[in-house]
Specification:
heterodimer, A: 113 residues, mainly beta, six-stranded mixed β-sheet, four-stranded antiparallel β-sheet, globular, B: 110 residues, seven-stranded mixed β-sheet, 11 strands
Amino acid sequence: DAKTTQPPSMDCAEGRAANLPCNHSTISGNEYVYWYRQIHSQGPQYIIHGLKNNETNEMASLIITEDRKSSTLILPHATLRDTAVYYCIVRVGVNNQGGKLIFGQGTELSVKP
Amino acid sequence: KAGVTQTPRYLIKTRGQQVTLSCSPISGHRSVSWYQQTPGQGLQFLFEYFSETQRNKGNFPGRFSGRQFSNSRSEMNVSTLELGDSALYLCASSKDSEQFFGPGTRLTVL
């Protein structure tokens, strides 16, 4: 079973920040939080990951709470192309290579004009 | 750099047949994972191969099998197909911390 809980759907206005929450209260100390998204009928796309510090890349920012029991993915300026299902995943792996991803149901983000 | 490729992209089979799907990882990636995606069950992990050895396995029956070759290319096989095996089968390769997914093979079992 997935170790994360996400709202099933969210709406966001184009140009505004999209804040996608995720709960992972049973995360272990050596488990990372990963975010992927899947645009309809395509393979999932990696967005960002982190262990305990906040992370930022060209796509998004990841804010992890100090107790690591929850996190928020932030898309700073959402566009229509960001409409997708967003998956928050707690990573099980060996030396952070490969490993298996346990997907939950994700959050369906709709960006509206 | 070329991404993960999967062949074929679409496939139609009938119940009882078997099928082989192929995945070519990104050059230099040694880990290949397979996933099944259905509307009812979502994305489910099938198995992972690393250096020609199965390293992780999901909770699927023995009809689902896979292998990896010395060039890291991977195949998965499903025998005695059932209607419920209709799904999008996704392959992902990784070198370090990210998994890169292919476009998937859409299998329809009639």
